[in-house]
User: What shape does this take?
Amino acid sequence: MTLPTALIAADIPTDGIALGRLQGAWGVKGWSKLQPFSSDADVLLSAKTWYLLAPVGQYAKTFTGFVGAVRVAVAQCKTHAGGLVVQFDGIDDRDDVHSLKGAEVWVNRSEFAPLTSDDEFYWVDLIGCEVVNRQGEVLGQVQEMLSTGPQAVLCVTTSPTDDPKLQRLIPFVGQYIDGVSLVDKRITVDWLPDYD
Assistant: This one.
């Protein structure tokens, strides 16, 4: 398959953040479904340039879009049925769009809107933070964030390979979060190790 000229070979930017994965064609006019990695993905609606990274693992087996990474201009992106749909400049063929299924979507960090207060955080900044309780006990690191509707939840494990059943799920609300230091990559919580 010949690549659409709209896909320009490029490196993922050093400040690039992975925000989602293309899920295949949507409709017949060159749109693609996109599954954001978190509900904190508003930057995808406004960024005009995305970087796509060819997948590894399970998605690589059927991927035919390109090798390495490419840059693409976004014509339109909008919310649809719990996810997003996107149309790229210069790609209007359903088969071309479907060939991109599985590609990771990256955006420059500089595209993120500035936060308006000291108690606002982008989820991506919380991933990897060490979580320590008031007693100074290390509870683990934030592996991911979950949205439960009204609140976000820190998924904390002692190692990335931990059994998901061993995760600590700590609501990211003032009642349990004493402080966040992004400089130190540390979150202090009112949480004991034996809380379920």
